[in-house]
Amino acid sequence: MYDLVIIGGGPASAACAVYAARKKLKAVLITDEWGGQSTVSAGIENWIGTKNIPGFEFAKTLEEHVRAQNGIEIITGDKVLKVDGKNNGFTVSTESGTDYESKTVFVGSGASRRKLGVLGEKEYDGKGVAYCSTCDAPVFKDKAVAVVGGGNAGLEAAMDLVPYAKTIKLLEYSDKLKGDPATQDKVRESGKVEIIFNAETLEIAGDKFVRELKYKDRASGEGKKLDVEGVFIEIGSIPNSEMVKGLIETDKYGEIIVDHKNSRTSRLGIWAGGDVTDDPFKQNNISAGDGVKAALDIYNYLIIGDKR
Ligand SMILES: Cc1cc2nc3c(=O)[nH]c(=O)nc-3n(C[C@H](O)[C@H](O)[C@H](O)COP(=O)(O)OP(=O)(O)OC[C@H]3O[C@@H](n4cnc5c(N)ncnc54)[C@H](O)[C@@H]3O)c2cc1C
């Protein structure tokens, strides 16, 4: 019986693990990969105390920090499928068929890329449709590409493509970009990104590879098309909360509802932090803070009981 099972290997879970080790909890961290979503970022510039760190380095530092702790067991390359409530705690079951019994659970499973759900998206996945600009931008050297999404992820994808693509069209559904003003400035200053507002993507088409993107101009209602050989889809994320579905309360987006004072969920014994929760701000520093709050509260709970 563990004191704590930590699900995930992003900033929320890594922070929870480091603090759990300092409290000498008997804990296991289970993650399919290290680093979380910003692992694909070319450079993270707001991880406090660090001016700029490439995403893959960031992932390495989180893993190294957790591995340097005594008493935290680490399982990588496995995925949690289900958390079940038992009389005296929880059973956490993974894809590999292993069950972990624990008194408490921390869910730091973050979020995954949202799909557009339009015709051609699945068919051309890997044949011009891409979801990771840091990984795939060089493949689109001298090609015309479209980026769907005007939030931070879309703006960063456009910037990743600037040194490679021949032309970049960024399609935003509404009449305003949603990303940080500083990132918007970078995109505008690049001089290479054409922003198309009010664009509703309808279809991705082609032959063996992507050749065009069809969209509706939501202002005029007119159907339009772009001749492109690549489409980067950057339209946000969906919370990875499947494993606790039905066990704890989530909002209409599937985000776990937490008490932001201590990261507790609706079920005593389960905590959650970071992007999988209903916190409106999705950031590395915030996720790490959630993990810290949870570990400290879990320790109090295990030592002195249900003190909220
Ligand atoms: C392209 C991009 C750039 C970004 N840039 C920045 C930035 O510059 N600064 C910033 O502050 N924020 C940035 N963000 C946001 C930031 O990445 C997130 O807020 C942060 O990663 C959330 O951390 P988390 O630990 O909650 O979850 P995540 O980072 O999503 O980590 C979740 C972890 O859980 C694991 N996992 C998921 N499901 C399971 C499961 N079933 N079983 C086991 N493990 C599982 C995953 O492998 C991963 O390790 C960026 C996001 C994106 C997409």
Keywords:
five-stranded parallel sheet; FAD/NAD(P)-binding domain; elongated; 2 domains; 308 residues; flavoprotein; seven-stranded mixed sheet; binds flavin-adenine dinucleotide; alpha/beta; Ferredoxin-NADP_redctase_2
Low-confidence runs of at least 5 consecutive residues: none
CATH T-level fold name of the largest domain: FAD/NAD(P)-binding domain
**CATH homolog superfamily of the largest domain:** FAD/NAD(P)-binding domain
- Provide the β-strand percentage band: 25-35%
Helical proportion? 10-25%
Instruction: Work out the oligomeric state of the chains in this entry.
Output: single chain
What is the global morphology?
A: elongated
Bound ions, cofactors and other small molecules, one mention each: flavin-adenine dinucleotide
The end-to-end span amounts to 24 Å
Number of extended strands: 17
Descriptive account of the structure:
The structure is a single chain. With 308 residues, this protein is of the alpha/beta class. It folds into two domains: 2-113 and 237-304, FAD/NAD(P)-binding domain (3-Layer(bba) Sandwich), CATH 3.50.50.60; 129-233, FAD/NAD(P)-binding domain (3-Layer(bba) Sandwich). It is 23% helix and 29% strand. The protein contains six helices and 17 strands. The protein has helices at residues 11-22, 55-67, 133-136, 152-161, 181-190, 284-304, and strands at residues 2-7, 27-31, 72-76, 80-86, 89-94, 99-107, 111-113, 129-130, 144-148, 167-171, 193-196, 199-206, 210-217, 223-227, 230-233, 237-239, 270-272. The strands form four sheets. Strands 1, 2, 3, 4, 5, 6 and 17 form a seven-stranded mixed sheet that branches. It has a five-stranded parallel sheet with strand order 8-15-9-10-11. Strand 12 and strand 13 (210-217) form a beta hairpin. Helix 1 (11-22) runs parallel beside helix 6 (284-304) and helix 4 (152-161) packs parallel to helix 5 (181-190). The longest helix is centred in the last third of the chain and has 21 residues, at 284-304. The model has no long low-confidence stretch (mean pLDDT 95). Flavin-adenine dinucleotide (FAD) binds at residues 7-13, 30-34, 36-38, 40-41, 44, 46, 79-80, 108-111, 153, 156, 240, 243, 274-276, 282-285, 287. Flavin-adenine dinucleotide binds next to helix 1, strand 2, helix 4 and helix 6.
